[in-house]
Amino acid sequence: MSTLLRDFWYVAMPGKNLKVGQLVGKKMLGDPILVGRRDDGQVFAMRDICPHRAIPLHHGWIEGDGVCCCYHGWKFNTEDGKCSHIPSMTEFAQLDIQRIRVQSYPCREVQGNIWVYIPSNFSQINQLELPPVPIIEGFEDILPQISETLHFACHIDHAVIGLMDPAHGPFVHTSWWWRSGPRKFRVKEKLYEPVPMGFRLVPYDMPVSAKPYKLLGNKVSIEIIFELPSVRTEILRGDRHQACAFTTVTPIDETQCEVHQSLYWTIPWMGLFKPILRSLTLQFLGQDRDVVIKQQEGLVYNPPLMLIDDADTQAKWYYRLKQEYLQSQLEKRSFKNPVEKRILRWRS
What we know:
Blueprint lengths: L7 E7 L8 E6 L2 E7 L5 E5 L13 E3 L2 E3 L6 E3 L5 E3 L18 E2 L1 E4 L2 E6 L27 E7 L3 H9 L4 H4 L14 E9 L2 E8 L15 E7 L3 E7 L4 E10 L5 E9 L8 H26 L13 H18 L11 E6 L1
Antiparallel strand pairs: 1-11, 2-3, 3-4, 4-9, 5-6, 6-7, 7-8, 10-11, 12-18, 13-14, 13-19, 14-15, 15-16, 16-17, 17-18
């Protein structure tokens, strides 16, 4: 049984990576998915297999409001996937081509990311009221200054709990520009509380010694929110500016995933440093990726994972949230958040 969560929106790619007229073939939660952008700028998603001879549609091209297969030119509407043209057919054919269709997926472009909704049941998707695409409050009209995607050769669970892990920083993120020099461990004490589909670090004021954050103002607070299936939002709010690191993880299949990170800020002149910040972002994410790749060497033996309080409590919450979601779907009942408000303490 798959442990990948369906009936959620997942990021397919940053919007900047999809040009007008471009088709991109993806695998998301094991499904072959075609993502494209029409000449009018509208994005769409559909199954990346032509029903005629099974050739992937990403080898074809966009023509008006349809996608044409490169093998025989069959054309499928980008809105509903219905076949609209078969070049080889004559006027004597009795076939109703609109009965031929490629499964389409709901697709939206929001705050610079392209999202695809992956349903558990396609037969009911037109009757469902889809949940809203995740948005970052306070950044509604801002596009990301930096958007990067890294491939993680691991199950989504290990990528997610690795990214939320509060204790790995001094050992994994050891670049010259981050936590260099002797390790100085301090006790951290943070208040967490439940949110509709996850939990959040209740906003608190950053210490005065955190000089980089002074770019946002004299008083800066931090808030971190995690919600199923794999959305982590870290927001820094100052009395002059604010910034956000928005991270999502999209399963490719049961053994690999993609981590998408977008950085937003309201500091006008920070754009001058985008090349440097992009390099640092890739290096930071790369360190997280490298350690979970090393982790796979041990996971092949399927050992039980030892999760301790309080440093691993967020990982425990993640597994409980997933379990409750799957159980609620199975029992056709409302989701009941298992997370309770509490203070977590750890050293890092």
